[in-house]
Amino acid sequence: MPIFISHSSKDREFADALGANLVMSKHHIWMDRWELNVGDSLLDRIQHVLAESTAIIVLLSKNSVESEWCRREINAGLIRELSERKSLLMPCVIEECLVPLFLQDKVYADFRTDPDQALDQLKAALAKVSNPKQGSNETPQFKTDWSVDWKSRDGIRIIEWTFVDHGHEWPYVILSKCTVICNPKATVNFAKAEAEDRADEYMRDILATVMEQVPVDGLIVRIEDAREQTIAKRFNRSNGEAFDIHFSYRRLGEDNGFDTVVYLDNNLRIALNHMVAVTAQPAR
């Protein structure tokens, strides 16, 4: 999902420069004048993006703190923070102004004194929602951390997603992996994508194909002991690419005496949804 920049129209020049800089760093930025076409509903689109965005950058200036529209955008972000129990608003002070009360407890990027350092701080904060190669997903019962890595072995490309599942009341964690071994055709295509700075998109598409090709019921497994267990699959694409898929999973930590059912497809879906959201290209 995109990153929303809340700003006053009077600060348009600063917002455009900041947005362009972040896009160069491969962040998916949404601003109304970049995305809206003639006839689009401004209110509907902004409401949708505010509800779906992974982060809301708030440019604080004399103009924005006095803007009723900007206050509504901040309030929408605060409501989401309370309901989703996660930090979404990222304040950036661009000139002397009175910081709104509900933002005063947040660390902000200060563009008044050192813009370069403030930009670096903002990019670091955005990394947790804009890095397509790793992420974390939390629900009231579980937390899943994951990352993806790739390498070459004997001239063949290998992609590996690693997941760690934590249950808030579990005395153990579940470690699982999805390893994708490319055939020569896929290896060539992956190398080409990497040379064109499209490796993230290529891995995203491979994961989407895995989700399409592997039956969900084949990824519901039971862990009975500490030994690693595996599942092997294979699928082909019409363009000549072929992939060997290896799933492995095991339990680490205290044995509570019960079997554990693991839904490997949930982890793949978490990673895919994140990669799709982060690698989506902003329209200009």
From TrEMBL:
- State the Gene3D superfamilies in the record: Toll/interleukin-1 receptor homology (TIR) domain (3.40.50.10140)
Q: Which GO terms describe its biological process?
A: signal transduction
From what superkingdom does this record's organism come?
Answer: Bacteria
Q: Where is the TIR domain?
A: 1-130
Question: By its UniProt entry, which InterPro entries does this protein fall under?
Answer: TIR_dom (IPR000157), Toll_tir_struct_dom_sf (IPR035897)
| Pfam families, A to Z | TIR_2 (PF13676)
Matches recorded under SMART domains? TIR
Official protein name in the record: TIR domain-containing protein
Taxonomic source organism: Rhizobium leguminosarum
Taxonomy of origin reads:
Bacteria, Pseudomonadati, Pseudomonadota, Alphaproteobacteria, Hyphomicrobiales
